[in-house]
Every structure is written in structure tokens, then in C-alpha cells.
Amino acid sequence: MDHKLYQCRGCSANFCPFCMGGLKFCTVCNGAEGTLTTHCTGARLSVPQELAVKAGRLDYANGLWVHYGFLAQAVHGKRLPLVALASNDGFYLGTAEGEATVTQESTESFASAQLALEALASGSWTQRAKA
Length: 131
Ligand SMILES: [Zn+2]
Ligand SMILES: [Zn+2]
Hints:
Helix content: 10-25%
Bound molecules: zinc ion
Oligomer: single chain
Radius of gyration: 18 Å
Number of strands: 5
Strand content: 15-25%
Number of helices: 3
């Protein structure tokens, strides 16, 4: 769904950030500017979600949360979505371009791709600090 942007009615302020400054603020998810996702989640963002969106590590589009790799951005300057990738000892969360792995982002490995993606969705995984 689209954001339900706040609109001033009968605004008489000398300078209004909404109608004069072009500030976008969604009355549903509470997102504004840096915390405004591509599409509206339909519910107020939690504080961790707001921080992650602001940091460019999380977005919501086409009905799904999209997580972006921290190391992909920090080390490679690339904004790549986190996916489950296979390794010799299981699956981990990381980023890839085509067939090539760019980063390994989770410290832990998971028994299946499904478990890795569930950990991603619930936030119960650990970010590697270094590539
Ligand atoms: Zn919204
Ligand atoms: Zn106004």
C-alpha cells in the first residue's frame, strides 16, 4: 500500500515543513523522510525498524521487508539484499551478485536456507562486524 501522507488543512504557520518544506510524513507507519519505506507497512514502525530503515539496511516494498547487507555497503559500497547462501557447513545470510558471493553477513550458519531466512525475518541472527 502507499503511505498515507499527512496533509495540512487550513495551515497558517509562517513556515510549515509539510506544505512549504515538502516534508513527507506518513500517519500510518509514522515514517518521515529517512524512515519512509518504499511502500507503507500498514503499521507503525518499531524503533529498531526505524533505525534500520534510516541506516539504509531495511526497506519495505511490494508487501515484503527487504534487508540489506551491512558489510556489502560498508566494505563494497553496494546496496544488496540479504539472501540465504550455501557454504560447506550450511547456510548463512549474505549478499551476492548473480552467482558470486559478495559478503557473508551472519556469524552463524543454519541447517537450511529456510531456517536462515526465518532467522532473518525474526531478527534472531548476528551481524558479522568485519568482512
Ligand atoms: Zn506509511
Ligand atoms: Zn502546513
